[in-house]
Predict the 3D structure of the following.
Amino acid sequence: MSLISYGYQENSDSIAKDYASIVAEKVSTADSGSTAPTLPDSVRVSIENLYRLLEMFKYESYSDEQRGGVLMLQRSDDAEHFDGNEDRDWQVRITTAFQSSVETVFPSVERKAAIGQVQNSLRTFAKGELLVDARKIELRDFFVTFRDSM
Amino acid sequence: MIAKDFLLGECENIRSLLDSTLRFDYGPDGSAKFYSECSTRLGALEAGLRNCPPTDNARLRIYAVHLNALSTLVCRIERSSISEYSWPFVEEFKKISNAICREDTSVESDVPLLVFVLADGGLDAYAIASEANRPAYIVNRLLTIVFPKTLKSFVLLHTILGHELGHAIFSCIHHQAEIKKSVFPHICHAGGQFENQGATAQHLFSASRPADVSIGPHLSEANFWNSHSWNAWIEEVLCDLIGLATFGPAFVAAEVALLTSLDPSRNGWGPWHPLVAWRINLLRRACALLGYDAPVTGSAAFVQANADFWRFIDSAVKADPWFNVLEDQQILVAMNALHGLLGAHPPAAYASPSSAELESLFAQLQKQVPPVGFQLSASGVAQCIEVDFRAILFAGWLAAKASVDPIPFPLTNKLCQQALIQQRAISIYS
């Protein structure tokens, strides 16, 4: 018997909110026109996760549940012991927040094009390349709106 | 305060454990990439913890859960060793997974997922765990391939991982979008058994269900999906088709061998897996539609072995039409769509070997030598021939299931595993 057992608690939106804060702050404080130094781990992880979330949002493909192996066949005749129903609430909350960011920061840009623009700016920033002020502001505002919508 | 200090201490413990993973032998690629990835994860968790107010219990709990996941992963890497699994198979398999399990990251486009291999457990251990896409303390996603420790050299059975590869492919966001557009509409076609949850439950509980398929007294058509995941069942069907599209008949043989060993009645299912017989019948029908079971020409022994192989597969097929869950046209269109997807990422898609190539491999096995693409011409000149490892494995199944002079299954596996190593060298010169 293990020391403690606890039910799975979905916290994707909470983590995403933290990541949006970290990236928005880092973008705001980055020097203009200079090559960024190596990013700290917390910023690298934040950027990567937000980039991946934008991919999910862009393609509307959120399925990522872990399944057992190919041969896992235990019967489930008793509904009480099943805990495999997927929690989709986090997907809804994140989609709504991204949608709000797109509408606020890119009011006249087509949805996929807007996401692509944010991803391009994220990539430029992640690689330590020059990000012009207009793009920096756009990126910061996008994730501030996302964070505040969560 | 105690929780935060304790978790920061655990960060130090994980760092020390992580350092020891660099000492081990994991195969040609080494462990530096895993070390780097895990170090970054740890760095992000530690930074988050340091900024976390000691009274923020909700956030501290999140860090505890993710630290725990990281330490579990590091322990797995630390325990894994190349000596515990069939590395010749893994090296071939990685060529496929590296070609298709790719995604765009914030710094690069089209990056392969990191593949990590582990040996554990027995018959039902086969799995590929692809890390979730949802937010977590990770940079690059890891694919963890799990082989049964008891079946280390049984490379013919390892083709079952074609199914697991399907899950990994489906977890790649752009592939998932493509599959939902071009494959799911055919699996879930209007009027079919998988059109929606209601249609599947209706079929399962229909009066035409054979008497030996029993359903527990607590389950009904109305409450069935409270204890089973319909999405998971559809994904399982998809992954069976991807297994076939990746490994061909050898995959079907492995699925038949393993599923019928674990569920001899083939009437079982699970919360995430549809009926075994539905799956086997579907794969067998797909093989017929793709022409995999077409008569072959060649020596009498080779022709007979082919017939024996398909007889083995057919022995697991249920005759009652209730077990046939997709129509021929839908199977064909879905398979064509999958071949299109896999074909764009060579060498992911299975290509049938010619009869002559297969017969040559089979003939070598009959002499109990590793079946490879090498021969001496009449004038004594050595010829090195490129052979796909899946052709070697199919030839292995033919030799193992032959009714005349069958090669014992463990020996066939060892010969085929040797062949994978030798073919690796031969391919350099072909």
User: Anything to note?
Assistant: Chain A touches chain B through 56 residues (CB under 8 Å). Chain A is about 60% helix and 0% strand. Residues 75-81 of chain A have pLDDT under 50 and may be disordered.
